[in-house]
Amino acid sequence: MNTNNPSTHTHTTRDYMALEEQYGAHNYHPLPVVLHRGEDIYVWDVEGKRYFDFLSSYSAVNQGHCHPRIVRALKEQADMLCLTSRAFYSDALCEYEEYMHQFFGYDRILPMNTGAEGVETALKLARRWGVVKKGIPNDRVKVICCEGNFHGRTVTVITMSNDPSSFDKYGPLTPGFIRIPYNDTEALRRVLEEQADEICAFIAEPIQGEAGVYVPDDGYLKSCYDLCHAHHVLLIADEVQTGIARTGRMLCSEHDGVRPDIVILGKALGGGVLPVSACLADDEIMLNIMPGEHGSTFGGFPLAARVAVEALRVVQDEHLVDNAQRMGEIFRDEVRRIQSPFIAQVRGRGLLNAIVTTPVAGRTAWDLCIRMMEKGLLAKPTHDHIIRFAPPLTITEPALRQAIEIIRETFEEMSR
Ligand SMILES: *Cc1c(COP(=O)(O)O)cnc(C)c1O
User: Fold this and answer.
1) Ligand 1 pocket check: which of 61, 213, 221, 240 to mutate, most ligand atoms within 8 Å of Cβ?
2) What's the pLDDT at 99?
3) Would the CB of 115 count as within 6 Å of ligand 1?
4) Choice among 238, 256, 261, 367 that is catalytic
């Protein structure tokens, strides 16, 4: 037996943090809490202290931690067959494909693993459609993206970002993108009028999550959809964070009555247990990629396929769309009543919400998050001054009200 097993519980929070500091790459700056266990809306640290999880792994844990049905599906499939590659069929993938067609109403699914891969796949689908169906010369095909976007971390995907911490000093980027302001239909109209001949798609998040839960004007996505269609350009909705009931609709695009040409899903599609992403589209778009022209060893693997189906069944059976909508309204109503000079704005939809803070007496959003952590609630700042609040969608009203009390106390105390 290895007596140096680092997972035995002789380590304290400090010891673990020191291990990561020494042996892990420094590409994250976590809150100083070391988590060991999770159940539903709660997580516990290595010292046994319990917290409300108000990040939900960036909305990958919409169904709650270690959901018993999802974990059971994972274990049953793990004992049966985990991985086949796409060199062969698997019963699990075939059933998942049919399920996704019936659930979301698109002709087809292209399964991938991470959100960034889903985005890459959507860009390839759109570019291919642009060349094959729209007749754009291969070396001219362009995609419009938005300022403030977050679509992931691969080289092509960071090309779309205008945040230097995402793209700076990573060498040459990918050509073929045009960036316009978000929530600005006039900017979209201008670009389309000038260059639509060479544009295959417009990609946007229905709400910009990482930008700080930036909610566009009502009808923005619908106007974009109409403009795109008038110019024979595809609308790609990156629903990796906003999808799967998070905003009080199964897809956030539904708030605007929009059916995007390509939908990208990820995060909560994996039920909080596996990386599972997908592109959904109809034949006209999907069937331009032929065997051997795109793929992923793990994409659609049996384990992921079973987990994704169960993850969506749980969302449906537990009415998480309705719950996200109702709890979100309570959250925003209550938090807007908090009297605190830190609070500049409260915004969001469903259970994807944020408080925009202004620093008071040198105290920042980070300090507020540390105090909430001490009081048993985990949330993390994005862009220094914005705190996102996104609990699992299974949260009940009494639990939500307890959590709001922690937020209220923190914001009131810290401003004294
Ligand atoms: C998180 C996220 C991604 C990237 O997903 P990964 O699984 O981290 O690659 C893409 N788009 C949006 C909108 C996201 O929030």
Assistant:
1) 240
2) 98
3) yes
4) 238
pTM exceeding the 0.85 threshold for the entire prediction: yes
Q: Which of 52, 54, 134, 150 is catalytic?
A: 150
* Token couple for 50: 């319990």
Ligand 1 atom at minimal distance to the Cα of residue 209: 15
pLDDT confidence of residue 2 = 46
Strand order in the sheet with 50-53: 35-39, 42-45, 50-53, 377-378
**Cβ–Cβ < 8 Å for 32, 20:** no
CB distance 104 to 280 below 8 Å: yes
Beta-bridge partners for 352 = 349
Q: Which residues contact 51 (CB under 8 A, 6 or more apart)?
A: 33, 42, 43, 44, 45, 373, 376, 377, 378
Which is catalytic among the residues 267, 331, 380, 389?
Answer: 267
Tell whether the torsion through CA atoms of 285, 288, 290 and 294 is positive or negative. negative
Low-confidence ranges of the chain (pLDDT < 50): 1-4
